[in-house]
Specification:
Chains A, B: GO terms for molecular function: aspartate kinase activity; ATP binding. Chains A, B: Keywords: Amino-acid biosynthesis, ATP-binding, Diaminopimelate biosynthesis, Kinase, Lysine biosynthesis, Nucleotide-binding, Transferase. Chains A, B: Its EC number is 2.7.2.4. Chains A, B: InterPro entries: AceGlu_kinase-like_sf, ACT-like_dom_sf, ACT_Aspartokinase, ACT_dom, AKIII_YclM_N, Asp/Glu/Uridylate_kinase, Asp_kin_monofn, Asp_kinase. Two copies of one chain form a homodimer. The first copy, chain A, has 448 residues and is of the alpha/beta class. The first copy, chain A, folds into two domains: 219 residues, Carbamate kinase (3-Layer(aba) Sandwich), CATH 3.40.1160; 148 residues, VC0802-like (2-Layer Sandwich). Helix content of chain A is 38%, strand content 20%. The first copy, chain A, is built from 14 helices and 15 strands. In chain A, the strands form three sheets. Chain A has an eight-stranded mixed beta sheet, with helices on both faces. In chain A, strands 12-11-13-15-14 form a five-stranded antiparallel beta sheet. In chain A, helix 2 runs antiparallel to helix 3, helix 2 packs antiparallel against helix 5 and helix 11 runs antiparallel to helix 12. The model of chain A has no long low-confidence stretch (mean pLDDT 91). At the A-B interface, helix 9, helix 10, helix 11, strand 12 and helix 13 of A face helix 9, helix 10, helix 11, strand 12 and helix 13 of B. Strand 14 of chain A pairs antiparallel with strand 14 of chain B.
Chain lengths: 448, 448
């Protein structure tokens, strides 16, 4: 049994629905499919989810929402008409949306979650209806019925472990099962959404729950590239990478795969195949537990901007047991999460996402560290970018670091920071934001 | 005014005493001298301090100590006789030693500290007596009289800030002042020693207290080398290095200068000159606040063995605010100090001196991290060496890291760990102990 998840652009129009149906029907192992809300049909298009967020905000603010409501319905209507479906399904969707607005109009957070979730939910109903229209047995399966139970944190749901037991029952059902992505139900029966991009999470949970042979993740690219194609032209396509490599890459800038989505399949040992709905013949990229990395020790290069570092120095810092712990305690008190903490004998830096340090909070943290730890100097350095070189073959290969640093030197990029050691699959470099693309290009040149 | 400190080998014999006198008398600015206990005269010789430790242990254990007592006295007698001094001073030393043993025989810690300190103390008396014998005005100055007041931690004294005020009075005194190194007095009047090698600390404190023009540190080498001469033959001599460079180098394996000793002169901005008692014409090495580092960005390479790393991994570790803080809290509870904490997305390592992890403690720490933080994997990697490349020119120079990593690759040394970023003057590499000398040689080749 295969679980196939189709992303927003794969289910954005009637034409895309036809491609999905063709893909699903061409392999009888594709028994469970998870769908996103309709995505963009062209570059300037608005995603369904964004329309629904607008709708929720208008309802909450008491503004007139007829135009947005109509825009939402038009997307479904266009798909239904393009597929020559009867209007019955459209009426159903319309009634469903009105019911949500009516039920939750005085609960802004619940309304937001329920409307956001409706994008996936109604698209799943539409997809199941389409399969039936084509003459195939297919069932829309609501996440509650499937057994996807989550914590009650609107917009940040976490799966509850008992869900996996319940999901097993899906195997007993017949026909094609169409499950909406992106949300589950709390124990009290409320719709709660996963973090954004969370249809990948639903697919991964379902694949783990039914013990799928493979979790297919259909997108709009032939494969995962070893580096961001907006930085390097026509970069190398990856045939295979490991869960660890994918996680490091997706965390630090690779948007192909949602960062948290890998956990369920990783724990269950289910391989993932990232494929293109628009070119299903392409082999795609496999994400697996192990790969032979002799020929290609490096899997990819990721980069992300928007970091800063808090640099602290204090003479004889290293003699002070508890110094580092106290600094981290102050950050924890302020709810700050950090990326790395490179340290020297008398120095310590904390690298974090700059968006977390705002106005008052920044000053309060600096003051606390200054006063409570009596440091000699503290200052914040902004506009940092982190570059992650990721690969299973990193640890054993003398010279991986040499290649990287030579590349930086040739490209005249100063390295603000290097962190290598704990993770066996990645090496991190900190550079100024202005140099990041130059640095990534230089790294691509030496590794690929 | 210059403060000159003479290390153990510089005051190990009558011949060395003559050299010291010659050096001091050749420059009338050399008004305050600080002396160590007699050091080794030849490779297999026993240092006075070690004899005195033996003596203290024997007294404490109730063993006969006549032989050690005699060996101690013979060292002083040999010096006194060689310098043709009257026996009066030897009788004084003998009486002093007996008094210490008698006073503290039931207080092992105090006895140890007082006997250890007597090595410097009696040598200072002997030195002052010798200057008088040569017809010069010279005074032995006891640390209590000088104003060196310290915390009451036997073997680990810390200077009390009020000492600096009192030390100023030394400037008013006439003649050559001879102060024993290595110890001060607690507020309750007890002798308390600095950490071992602490005569450097006394010299530095006195130089800062009197606002010396220079703190001269006389040893038995012409200069500080850029790398350990037992690893690289005839390494380059350093003319000048900064306080920060010296501190980083001395911390990580350079034994020339005691690591904590720099602080007082660093804070007071007093330059240090490391010189050779056996070749005082050599220019020595200057330790200063700033140096022109354009020509030589790297000052030196230090290395030290005996480290280990605790490697922790946990899926989605980076999402857990407080994870790093909790790990460091456990180490703090166990009194463990660490060097560095390189981290990946799902990994964290703690690099520390392996001697701190012994039997039960190691297991307890592993168990606590495992249980309290629910990690996926934790293991300890031993036999690590750290190599520190130190230089003020490091930050601005693209290519410093490239040279290092290329050198490692050529020498076929795998880099277990790189830590660069916080300190602007050093870059740290972790390698297997077996590869450390090969690595240091390779680095020397590329930088010097």
């Amino acid at each position: 049994m295969k679980v196939a998840k189709f992303g927003g652009s794969s289910v954005a129009s009637a034409g895309q629905f036809r491609k999905v149906a063709h893909i699903v029907l061409s392999d009888e192992q594709r028994r469970i499919i998870v769908v996103s809300a309709p995505g963009k049909r062209f570059k300037e298009d608005i995603k369904m989810t964004d329309l629904l967020i607008q709708l929720a905000n208008k309802v909450t603010n008491g503004d007139s929402c007829d135009d947005v409501f109509t825009a939402v319905m038009e997307r479904y209507e266009e798909i239904a008409e393009g597929l020559e479906l009867s209007s019955e399904i459209i009426e159903k969707i319309k009634a469903d949306l009105k019911k949500i607005i009516d039920n939750y109009k005085n609960e802004p957070e619940r309304l937001m979650d329920a409307l956001k979730a409706s994008g996936e939910d109604n698209n799943a109903k539409l997809m199941a209806f389409y399969f039936n229209h084509l003459g195939h047995e297919a069932h829309y399966v609501n996440p509650k019925e499937a057994g996807i139970f989550v914590t009650d944190e609107p917009g940040n749901a976490q799966i509850l472990p008992e869900s996996y037991e319940k999901l097993k029952d899906l195997k007993k059902r017949t026909g094609i099962l169409v499950i909406p992505g992106f949300f589950g139900y709390s124990k009290t029966g409320h719709i709660v959404t996963f973090p954004r991009g969370g249809s990948d999470i639903t697919g991964s949970i379902v694949a783990a729950g039914v013990g799928a042979e493979v979790y297919e993740n259909f997108t709009d690219v032939d494969s995962i590239y070893c580096v961001n194609p907006s930085i390097v032209d026509n970069p190398r396509k990856l045939k295979e990478l490991t869960y660890r490599e994918m996680r490091e890459l997706s965390y630090s800038g690779f948007s192909v795969f949602h960062d948290e989505a890998l956990e369920p399949v990783y724990r269950a040992g289910i391989p993932v195949c990232v494929k293109n709905t628009n070119n299903p013949e392409a082999p795609g990229t496999w994400i697996v537990a192990e790969r032979d990395h002799k020929e290609q020790p490096i899997a990819g290069i990721a980069s992300d901007t928007g970091f800063c570092s808090i640099n602290i120095s204090k003479y004889l810092m290293n003699r002070e047991i508890g110094f580092g712990r106290k600094v981290l305690q102050i950050l924890e008190d302020e709810g700050i999460s950090y990326e790395h903490t490179p340290s020297g004998i008398d120095n310590m830096s904390i690298i974090l996402r700059a968006a977390q340090l705002e106005g008052e909070k920044e000053q309060r943290i600096i003051d606390r560290i200054q006063t409570e730890l009596n440091v000699d100097d503290i200052h914040v350095e902004r506009n940092l970018a982190l570059i992650m070189v990721v690969g299973e073959g990193m640890e054993q290969t003398v010279g991986v670091a040499a290649k990287a640093t030579m590349a930086f030197a040739k490209a005249n990029v100063n390295i603000e920071m290097i962190n290598q050691g704990s993770s066996e699959v990645s090496m991190m470099f900190g550079v100024k934001e202005e140099a990041v693309n130059r640095a990534v290009k230089a790294l691509y040149e030496v590794y690929f």
